[in-house]
């Protein structure tokens, strides 16, 4: 038994070793990803129900890693957060997205009022230069502040409540919009709504997924929409995949939606092709 135990430990060691090498390697290549121009931003349209052109887009980062292919954010954002790389990466995404959306607004009448949402991680949120960086990016891109939305999850709001509140107010003073992402999945979503100056909540896609089939999900979505409307907040349903979900959301008074049914995250050069013919409303 002892022998088998030792063998198992060796196997385990080797697996750990490979994993560690993998991590170190990934971290090193991620460090060079910006300079080597391997990061991409895809844009997922957000629609006001009944309108053919999107009111906004969410910027979603991808890593086009040589010899590996397109790496989704779930596979490198956690590492980037852990080692601090999320600060330069996040700033790069922000700059790229603001510049792109300013260009679309100027060049296409169907996108003249387009807004953009960018995801912020907890680590970025704790960075003392965040507010100044955002102001600089806005200035350089020419994008009006009210056209930029910052999406934060409840984990960001958990860290240091007073510091968080101060940062949120400073961001608000810049004129940018604040959204709570994945709303309803955290522990204290409701108290945050009262304490923090948010403009929008995004219903987590796990609730949208069960909307038509699960009474609890329906009740939760209904409550979130009611709350948002009563508090004059915008509410976006995430992860809409079926017509039934969309119809149900409209009946419940949700006016903004995002999901594979409407449009997938899309590379910037393919966004125009998603729009209704020019001249249509
Ligand atoms: P998120 O902010 O909740 O973004 C929505 C995710 O849901 C995206 O995954 C999107 O592709 C996916 N999605 C959209 N519609 C549907 C649908 O109808 N069905 C399903 N099943 N999924 C849908 P993605 O692009 O893989 O991003 C995953 C997460 O990575 C994001 O979740 C966000 O937390 C994070 N992330 C992405 N880009 C950035 C970034 O630039 N900075 C930071 N800090 N995090 C980012
Ligand atoms: Ca988001
Ligand atoms: Ca989300
Ligand atoms: Ca998420």
TrEMBL record:
Organism, as annotated: Euzebya pacifica
Transmembrane feature ranges: none
Name assigned to this protein: Diguanylate cyclase/phosphodiesterase (GGDEF & EAL domains) with PAS/PAC sensor(S)
Domain EAL: from-to ranges: 23-279
UniProt superkingdom: Bacteria
Residues of the full protein shown: 491 to 771 of 785
């Amino acid at each position: 038994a002892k022998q088998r135990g030792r063998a198992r430990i060796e196997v385990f060691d080797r697996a750990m070793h490979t994993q560690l090498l993998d991590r170190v390697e990934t971290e090193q290549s991620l460090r060079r990803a910006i300079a080597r121009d391997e990061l991409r931003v895809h844009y997922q349209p957000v629609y006001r129900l009944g309108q053919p052109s999107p009111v906004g887009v969410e910027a979603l980062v991808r890593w086009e890693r040589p010899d590996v292919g397109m790496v989704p954010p779930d596979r490198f954002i956690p590492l980037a957060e852990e080692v601090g790389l999320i600060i330069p990466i996040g700033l790069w995404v922000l700059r790229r997205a603001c510049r792109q959306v300013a260009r679309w607004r100027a060049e296409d009448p169907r996108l003249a009022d387009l807004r953009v949402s960018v995801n912020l991680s907890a680590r970025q949120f704790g960075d003392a230069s965040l507010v100044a960086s955002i102001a600089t990016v806005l200035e350089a891109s020419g994008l009006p502040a009210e056209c930029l939305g910052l999406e934060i999850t409840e984990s960001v709001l958990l860290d240091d409540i007073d510091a968080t509140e101060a940062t949120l107010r400073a961001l608000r003073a810049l004129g940018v919009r604040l959204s709570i992402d994945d709303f309803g999945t955290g522990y204290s979503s409701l108290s945050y709504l009262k304490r923090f100056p948010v403009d929008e909540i995004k219903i987590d896609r796990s609730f949208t997924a069960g909307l038509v089939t699960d009474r609890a999900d329906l009740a939760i979505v209904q409550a979130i929409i009611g709350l948002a409307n009563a508090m004059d907040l915008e509410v976006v349903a995430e992860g809409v995949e079926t017509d039934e979900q969309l119809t149900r959301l409209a009946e419940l008074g949700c006016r903004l939606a995002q999901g594979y049914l409407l449009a997938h995250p899309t590379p910037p050069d393919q966004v125009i092709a998603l729009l209704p013919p020019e001249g249509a409303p």
